Amino acid sequence: xxxxxxxxxxxxxxxxxxxxxxxxxxxxxxxxxxxxxxxxxxxxxxxxxxxxxxxxxxxxxxxxxxxxxxxxxxxxxxxxxxxxxxxxxxxxxxxxxxxxxxxxxxxxxxxxxxxxxxxxxxxxxxxxxxxxxxxx
Length: 136
Prior knowledge:
Radius of gyration: 21 Å
Number of helices: 1
Structural class: mainly beta
Distance between the termini: 71 Å
Number of strands: 8
Number of domains: 1
Strand content: over 45%
Shape: globular
Largest sheet: 8 strands, mixed
Oligomer: single chain
């Protein structure tokens, strides 16, 4: 009897924690370019309260070499809190095509904190797509 009760309690415990999705989060993805080129950048979406103060844990991402990113709140939860956000983008690297001696294009990498910008964006329920086109 106690073995059956233990298994029942264990299965109830596992079912409560599994498959639950945080309804206060929404998917956020997009891409970043800097001076017309895809950029590797750190992206931070910090939720804001109505008074403009920080409203909780930020979602982050690092864009890929093609500039695309997808936010995550942590290792287990993708997305960002629904609502108004302060967005910080720190461009780390871009690849610029340049002609070499044979006339073909090669990639020239620029590395370092090239640009830091803060913006405001609102995250809605569902899927959010943001395209950040940054310049000097």
